[in-house]
Amino acid sequence: MPGILIIAHAPLASALRDCAEHVYAGCPSQLEALDVPADASPESFLAQAQTALAHVSADGTALVLVDAAGATPCNLAQRLARAPASACAVRVVSGVNLPMLLRTLCYQKEPLDALTARALAGGTRGIAELHNDEAPDPPTC
């Protein structure tokens, strides 16, 4: 089962993890959050990110969800994905939101490529304009 690592500007990563734990009691242990302070450089958090990645990737695969493409958390995730010393297969998806994370957790037992597709679908399907006369459908797995 691929691990899931959220890397985002503080305090978003922890907040998303906390929300997921609220929705899914007993959330999988292969979910980690790394909050990156505003003044952090990728170098200062690389060791922490490597440790978190090693913790979640028991099967040698991990999906890293980041908040904004091109920002420090994303740059850090891309360094993890490119690290030649890492024996872990890493995919990085930017634009993390709660629907993306919840869908990813629902399908976490799927292979990494399928899980990445589920994350992308969950994130985009979770964005919708709601009209006053429409009740939103509850999230489904």
From TrEMBL:
- Per UniProt, residues of the PTS EIIA type-4 domain are 1-127
Extract one GO cellular component term from the record: cytoplasm
Sorted alphabetically, the keyword list is: Cytoplasm, Kinase, Phosphotransferase system, Sugar transport, Transferase, Transport
What are the GO BP annotations of this UniProt entry?
phosphoenolpyruvate-dependent sugar phosphotransferase system
Task: Output one GO MF annotation.
Answer: kinase activity
Predominant localisation class: cytoplasm
Q: Where is it located?
A: Cytoplasm
Instruction: Report which superkingdom the organism of origin falls in.
Output: Bacteria
Q: Which PANTHER family does UniProt cross-reference here?
A: PTS PERMEASE-RELATED-RELATED, PTS SYSTEM MANNOSE-SPECIFIC EIIAB COMPONENT-RELATED
Name the chain's protein. Putative Phosphotransferase system,mannose/fructose-specific component IIA
Taxonomic lineage of this organism? Answer: Bacteria, Pseudomonadati, Pseudomonadota, Betaproteobacteria, Burkholderiales
